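User: Fold this; tokens only.

Assistant: Input:
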Amino acid sequence: MSKYKILFKLSGSIAAYKSAYLISKLVQNDCEVQTVASEGALHFIGKATLEGLTGKQVITDTFADGEMMSHINLVKWADLTILAPASANTINKFAAGIGDNVLTSLFLAHDWSTPYLIAPAMNTWMYQHPATAESLKKLQEWGVEILPTDEGYLACGDMGKGKLLNPDDIYQIIKEKLIANELKAEDKLKVLITAGGTREKIDNIRYISNLSTGKTSSVIAQHFIDKGHDLTYLHSIDAKLPDGSYKKVEYSDFNDLNEKIKKQLKDEKYDALIHQAAISDFSLDSVQADEKTIYVPLKEKLNSDVQNLTFNLRPNFKIIDRIKKYAGDETLTVISFKFTDTESREKQVEQVNSLLKKSNSDFVVHNDFSDRGKENSQSNFGIFNDDGKIVSVKSAKELAEELEILIINKKK
């Protein structure tokens, strides 16, 4: 990494010793690190260790001689701030707006144009306590990036969540956040991603759906969030969600998804739509229960004593074919997905080309059922345009990186 300035805070937790490794790795990768420690933190890690690693004096007292304005000057200085380890006490103080020590005062003075990361480390019961959970939720809503915890054997002897996330993983997150924060204004994108699968209700309990989980969409969305783009995530009820700050919109069935896409494209000007939602080709029209025709969705549970049951379906139009009309904007980059289930490469390409032509998509991402792995994870993607296949990637993360490049280049 280049010469980034990291404000590294430590609160009272036995996991503070792991922070020494992380600080060392940041310094080795050309970062300038200034540590700030609470009194509790210094019971677990010494000043000499922190000063030896950073070459800078540890800040511990808001009112120390020569440090009266440090809480203001430091937040102006830092490219990124991280609290690791973050104790339950400090997290709850942050959420309550208390400024009774150097850590909490610095938080109240934080410049929200730069990233703020919190890496919790505590006993499982403290981590899962309603007060801590509510505080973490509030801080995330304010714009703080809450890192997950690892799960395993804790210092107190318990097993469970609350372990400080692996320092190498924290380093990678810091690196990505710093790069994302440098995103040029002209390269910042406003992106709408659809995810998950539609549910066509039979009654309040039963529905017809598909095997889409939203996992690939979530990975793609996470990339755009981490890179600092403005993201709206239009997702089904049970689709996997990314982490971080973004706009969430939930849909249920075909009609609901169609109306919400239409509204988003009417109300907002997007640079791109990545349309990956798995949409029902048919919606339920009615149910023939024995000799009785019942129109759906039923208000009451369908009687299981019925001997003969027939579902009558009606075909749905292709939402993707109407996207540019809904947007009324020819500059919108439309990326659609074609999921095939055939070993014939010729048939796969034929289906992709048909989608490109009918939908007026700028790019089509192709993947096949044969590349679906455990837990419905997908791999091996091809990106097509009118010239044919232009990119092949193995993972959803690589796919996200390529899509970002394509959208930015088209915008230029």
